[in-house]
Amino acid sequence: MNRTAEGHDARGKLDMKDLTERELASFREEIAALLDETTDRLGQEDVDYVTLVARVSRYLEIAGRVLIHASLDPVSWSVGVASLAGHFILENMELGHNILHGQYDWMEDPRFDSRTYAWDNVIADGLWKKEHNGQHHAFTNIVGKDPDVCYGLYRMTDKVKWYPYHLVQPVSIFVNFLVFEYAIAAYVTGIVDRLAPKNLNTGKIGGKDGRAGAEFAWKMTRKNFKNYVFYPALGGLFFPKILAGNYLASVLRNVWAATVIYCGHFTENARMFTEEEAEAMGKEGYWYRQVLASGNFTGGKFLSILSGHLNYQIEHHLFPRVPAWRYRQLAPRVREICEKHGVFYNTGTFSSQFRGVVRRMVRHAVPRRAGIAEA
Fold first, then answer.
1. CA 105 to CA 47: how far, in whole Å?
2. Residue 282: alpha-carbon gap to chain centroid
3. Each residue's pLDDT tens digit, 230-254
4. What is the spatial distance between Cα 213 and Cα 277, in angstroms, rounded to a whole number?
């Protein structure tokens, strides 16, 4: 395999060299050995961790709903909103997403089993697992095969054809952040496909059936009734205050989830691949592509928990079925392996990575200009 330079950073070109076939095999062997070593250690620590997170999430929901209902001042109401938002975030990031990846299936506990877990999210669980676990993680950032490349309507790489509507994406993406849960559900269900240009190849699963749409509609109706009708109605005259609190907690959850996901997939140095580039790397290149296509952001333990440990997106894409709380332990080992093999390890502070996302979405909102390097 010939080495080729691709990629860029905020100030210009980043020299990102592809590995030879022998180097790819060696890199894969070390990553696979680390996976085996980690899998062998799974046990009571992991049981205790996920059980504790579920308990804390439940307590946050109770505290949040009580404070939002009973508050008579802005401070206690705000604490209630923050508590309920914390519950929504933990349920979405550290529990739902990770459990549906099968990270805790080995426990054989129906509370944390991907086959029985009821995600408090409007996404159709079965279709999401098929598309996210089965396609996105298998074909990460391969244009035309990864369904999550640009989410159908956006353009984050010159490998996706430009359309005039991309000019408004810096604004439309941030609007999308406010309703992220519903936007992703509509996208996975196939609704967004009907809005995208017919010749835009997004790698979507074909043949969406009515059951997925019906599940989306049912989950959305049930969730919205609970948060915006049932609980506010219990407050009688305080209906508006409770409605506003529940809505704000949901918005905070959506904005945070979108920010974490975009910082893991669309930073400036997160590389995109054509199908030809991916095929040239062969099966040995899978692990290598996962590293180049992802991005981490640094932060403390609390930030990691709120992120579902997806601030370690590189480790998540390498080890999607390993309990995510272990990514913090794995990251230094993965980085050492990458440095040993000369593989670029995309990491930075939260603020720097988010600024990179903004620059990327703005740059690709317009047709490519001559002399601009592309990842």
1. 11
2. 26
3. 999 999 999 999 999 999 999 999 9
4. 35
